[in-house]
Amino acid sequence: MTVRWPRLLTPTYLSQIIRNQKNPLTALQIFKEAKYKYPIYCHNGPIYATIIGILGNAGQICEMK
């Protein structure tokens, strides 16, 4: 998995990265990794909605928690 991380992460850019992933578990990993790569960054409502939608559509109910 190669993700090109920007110098400054915005919620819009993270949402695009997550939506472009084919594997929902990879999208979840990127979602979690963003907090470690950018300690100042905070997820907002649309980002949570994006990852919950991806996981829900894939039937990954346990990971949605």
Mean pLDDT: 92
Shape annotation = globular
Please identify the structural class as seen in this structure.
Answer: mainly alpha
The total domain count is 1
How many helices? The count is: 4
Q: In terms of per-residue confidence, which ranges show pLDDT below 50 for 5 or more consecutive residues?
A: none
The fraction of residues in strands falls at under 5%
Q: What kind of assembly state do the chains in view correspond to?
A: single chain
Tell me the series of helices and strands, N- to C-terminal. Answer: HHHH
State the helical fraction: 55-70%
Number of strands: 0
Most strands sheet? none
End-to-end Cα distance, whole Å, is 23 Å
Radius of gyration: 11 Å
Protein name: Pentatricopeptide repeat-containing protein
Topology:
Blueprint: H1 11-19, H2 24-37, H3 45-57, H4 61-64
Question: Could you describe the 3D structure shown?
Answer:
This protein is an all-alpha fold and 65 residues long. It has one domain (11-64). The chain has 4 helices and no strands. It has helices at 11-19, 24-37, 45-57, 61-64. It is globular and about 35 Å long.
In short:
This protein has 65 residues and is mainly α.
Question: What brief labels describe this structure?
Answer:
single chain, 65 residues, mainly alpha, 4 helices, 62% helix, globular
